[in-house]
Amino acid sequence: MGKIFIFDHAKCNGCRNCQIACKDEHVDNDWSPYAKPQPDTGQFWTRINETVCGQVPKVKVSYTLETCMHCDNAPCIAAAPDAVYKREDGLVIIDPEKSKGKAEIVDSCPYGAIFWNEELDIPQKCSGCAHLVDAGEIPHCVDVCPHEAIRFGDEEDFADEILASTLLYPEREDDKPRVYYLNLPKRFLAGVVVDPEADEVIIGAKVTAENVDTNEVFVQKTDDFGDFWFTQVEKSNWRVYVESEGYLTRVIEASTVEEDRNVGPVFLYKSDLAQ
User: Fold this and answer.
1) pLDDT tens-digit readout, 16-55
2) What values do phi and psi take at 127, rounded to 5?
3) Residue 264 and residue 254: Cα distance in Å, rounded?
4) How many other CB atoms are there within 10 angstroms of residue 61's CB atom?
């Protein structure tokens, strides 16, 4: 069955301990036959990408692990089967001796996880800390994660998580990546409900978000700040109904197809103003 990595997006706070740990373990350390020393700069075999989502003031920050996917059908192995191999435990290794001068291995990776070391004239990437695994330990990035956002172990021990997971790049499913992602963020749809006459937010207003494409409906009430947040929604077109007792109902159109959406202030007017 082999080893796998699990990354839980909901547990990652962007501390980048994993990124630093990878440097700590591999810079100036020769772990042959699995990896030569990683350069001080220019390479992040394990890295956390930060994405700012939404529009001010409704903004969230998303953190996502990017590393070698240790694919079962690894494109890098197909590109250089004499220099790249998969261990019995599933870790994909670039042989630092046999890969010398083979820059094409860098270009073969669709995930941007392989780097070129000019000084050593070799391609390099995450080895899954194979030297530690051989010693009965876990990869250093996993060991230092304070929130257990990254875990590593035998595939059979993570059966439930694998069933609940998604791939970071589902279009690359045929590669059969061995890094699984939990709780990857979808889109959010947010706004604030305001009474412009009173110059106050409206607390407890009913907000209904209808997915125009699927007819799925979500309902919530505005909080103590007049805000509403529909999180983990699909990339879709939405019709939002905003209503509160004594006010005229507002209907607005919004889209999360391209990005998370802050619809901004939604003004409700007293119903007696229309009489």
Assistant:
1) 999 999 999 999 999 999 999 999 999 999 999 999 999 9
2) -100, 5
3) 11
4) 11
For the chain, the straight-line distance linking the first and the last C-alpha, in angstroms and rounded, comes to: 71
Instruction: Enumerate the H helices of 11-95 as residue ranges.
Output: 17-26, 75-79
- The pTM of the full predicted model, rounded to 2 decimals, is 0.87
Q: Helix or strand or coil: residue 158?
A: helix
Distance (Å, whole) CA 144 – CA 151: 10
SS3 for 192? Answer: strand
Task: Give pLDDT tens digits for 174-193.
Answer: 999 999 999 999 999 999 99
Contact between 192 and 226 (Cβ < 8 Å): yes
3-state secondary structure of 268: coil
Half-sphere exposure of 201 (CA within 13 A, CB side): 15
Strand partners, 270: 247
Separation between Cα atoms, residue 274 and residue 172, nearest integer Å: 55
For 197, phi then psi, to 5°, come to -70, -40
User: Which residue stretches of the chain are H helix?
Assistant: 17-26, 75-79, 104-108, 130-134, 140-144, 159-164
Cα(2)–Cα(161) distance, rounded to whole angstroms?
Answer: 15
- Quick one: which of 54, 232, 29 has its CA closest to 140? 29
Q: Which amino acid is at 194?
A: V
Residue 209 structure tokens:
């978000």
Q: Which of 136, 145, 119, 133 is nearest to 46 (CA)?
A: 145
Distance CA 26, CA 9 (A): 25
